[in-house]
From TrEMBL:
GO molecular function: glutamate racemase activity
EC numbers, comma separated: 5.1.1.3
PANTHER family: GLUTAMATE RACEMASE
Main enzyme class: isomerase
Superkingdom of origin organism: Bacteria
GO biological process entries: peptidoglycan biosynthetic process
Presence of keyword Isomerase: yes
Protein name: Glutamate racemase
Keyword Chloroplast: no
Gene3D superfamilies for the chain: 3.40.50.1860
Length: 265
């Protein structure tokens, strides 16, 4: 079995590591284009072209399912990717986990890129899945870029700025960008003290678990964490085989994938 993931940079690591944890026997193909990062400021047409190029490169390796592991690409390019690759190759998009976050009743905060915050897309998700729930949209300028560079000081500054905009009383926080899932521990550490001494533990909602589970379902299989760890790792950079960027090793998800691959080489 083989699962492919695409993103401009290392935002795909959270979903990739989750797939590996659920199926250590699955081969992984990580297809990115760091030279075109970030995708957010690009026009929808330009972003779609780059995402399609990454998807085509991944599809050439004949995976059983393809994850678009980027919120922005899922908004603008998912339909085009599906139109080209499905039904032969199941394509799974990434949607902010607003529905499960709102299920407990809120209040809910959604951290997202400035381009996504307040967008018709995100407002539509709030309308459809969080009606009647108190929701605060929190823009996080610079956070995805800082995570991509593994710039610790810039990450802390961006997280602190977003935490200052997150209301006291927030019970659930949606990580509306796949990059944010790589620093979920730092986000919790910054937000929890602002909620008050008697506040319950903040619940963070990333997309990786649901996306990984859906990819396995669409591939016609089920989780098996105890499977033999035989899965191989292929990294594509602008369509050419390469290695994970050094910044990926700053995160436990990147290190776990590299260490697992090294153990099988």
């Amino acid at each position: 079995m083989k699962i492919a993931l695409i993103d401009s940079g290392i935002g795909l690591l959270a979903a990739a590591a989750t797939v590996h944890r659920l199926r250590p026997d699955a081969d992984l193909v990580l297809s990115g284009d760091p030279a075109s990062m970030p995708w957010g400021p690009r026009t929808p047409e330009d972003l779609t072209a780059h995402a399609l190029a990454c998807a085509r490169a991944a599809a050439a390796h004949r995976p059983d399912a393809l994850i678009v592991a980027c919120n922005t690409a899922s908004v603008h390019a998912l339909a085009a990717i599906r139109a080209e690759l499905e039904p032969e190759l199941p394509v799974i998009g990434t949607v902010p986990a607003i529905k499960p976050a709102a299920a407990a009743g809120g209040p809910v905060a959604i951290w997202a890129t400035p381009a996504t915050t307040g967008s018709p897309y995100q407002r539509g998700l709030i309308r459809d899945f969080a009606a009647g729930v108190e929701v605060t949209e929190v823009p996080c300028p610079g956070l995805a870029d800082a995570v991509e560079r593994a710039d610790s000081a810039a990450i802390d500054a961006a997280v602190a700025a977003a935490a200052a905009l997150t209301p006291a009383g927030t019970r659930a926080l949606v990580l509306g960008c796949t990059h944010y899932e790589l620093v979920d521990d730092r986000i919790r550490a910054a937000v929890q003290p602002r909620l008050g001494p008697d506040a319950p533990e903040l619940v963070l909602h990333g997309s990786a678990p649901a996306v990984a589970a859906q990819a396995l379902r669409r591939a016609g299989t089920a989780p098996d964490p105890d499977a033999a760890p035989t899965g191989r790792l292929t990294v594509l950079l602008s369509g050419r085989e390469g290695a994970l960027q050094p910044a990926a090793l700053a995160y436990r998800e990147g290190r776990s994938l590299v260490e697992a691959a090294a153990a099988r080489s």
